[in-house]
Amino acid sequence: MANSVLRSLRWRATISMALFLIAIAIAIRSVNYEVTREILVRDIDTQLWTRLDAFKTRQHFAPEALLGPEFALPELALPDLRAASDLKPSVAMRLLIPSAVTGRPFPWFAGAWREDGTLLGALRLPEDFAWEEPWRDRLETIWTEPDGQARLAACRGSDGAVLLVGTPLEPLAQAMRNVLWFYVWTVALAIPPMALAMWWILSRMMMPLTRISRTAATIAAGNFAARIDLAEADSELVGMATTLNAMLDRLEAIRISQARFNSDVAHEILNPIHGILLQADLSQQRPRTTDELARTVEQCRALALRIQKLSEALLALSKAESAADGPLADLDLEPIVEEAATQVEDLARARHVTLAVDSQSAVVVGNADLLHQVFVNLLANAIEYSPVGGRVEIIMARAGGRFVVRVADHGEGIPADRAEQVFERFFREDPARVTATGGHGLGLAICRSIMRGHGGDVVCRPTPGGGATFEVQFAPEKVAADGHPVNTR
For 325-487, which CATH superfamily applies? Predict the structure, then answer.
């Protein structure tokens, strides 16, 4: 249960916000607590100072009454301020400090002493409350006793007498306990509705995520055309929703491409298999001569070789895609290009095509075997589409901060609107011609997959004067701190 709560974003956010608000409430109530205490202490000081002033006035104008046997000090003082005021305490005040609004004033006491410490008169003095010499240094001030039991105010009266009034601080402590209890139960009472409110607000805020989840569930159920409705998405989620829709579009395109690819593979394999089965059926229908059987075997072998080439191409494509994230190393491109040109020399010689290699040393980051396959495929393709007696050129250069290798032929060329289509799997510019030569339409797709795995690309451009140029682009170079170029994947 605890683990599921911690894994819930809604629960974590609710708990975090509740703790944050509780911390803020505690901080505010702490400040309020201190301010309330200071206000009450000031109220006590005001009453003490007023009573002390009345005490001093009586002692000045009627000393005989003060020192006589009838000590009528209570008649001299004004009533408690809260009892005399017509300002009635509010409901909040009654809840906050009930002990301060019951109508009973803070209790107080008073006394008068001669300079030698002899008590002249007293009113409700606490037990064991006696003259103390330090009072002489505190005349005309208000202070709290060191033990914190009472707050006192003293002044010098006529004839050198010391007048003192005071109040015990236990009622103040009780009032502050009431304040603290009020803070505790109000915060505790506010937590449940506050948590429910935050839960409801978070639930409303997470509704767009719920809609996104429902859209994902719809797609998982097989409705691949479903997309997130951007019209209902909040502004903070539009970017994410747009990215997810783009990802879904890309996945849908890949799904369709994969389905078409599977269909094409099945078609490419079934064609020669049907041819082999047809030849086998014809051979069983009637006796054949040795020459006829030899031709049948040769035709079956040619069809089997076609299946073999297709299987090898599919295997090469799979290896190229799986090696896209494999380790790459620094290597010199020149010997790779020259070795690829040497490998296709026999094919060029058979078609009377001249190979012109303009190579130079170039250090790139890559996989030597995969790059070799790229250049062999491009050169064989260029030779195949070159006219008899034509010329295929290989040019290595630096362009736009990267190394490029251009393989150019001077054949019929490729229309501009098909410059990207030629890199699609099983695409054939001339299906009849490719079938006759045993092509399978995967060579250029393999080349592009390999180069994109190297952080580069392969693009097709027209050759000036006619023909097609395939440009192999490597990853852009970064310049190191010493000014030398550094190749990156």
Answer: Histidine kinase-like ATPase, C-terminal domain (3.30.565.10)
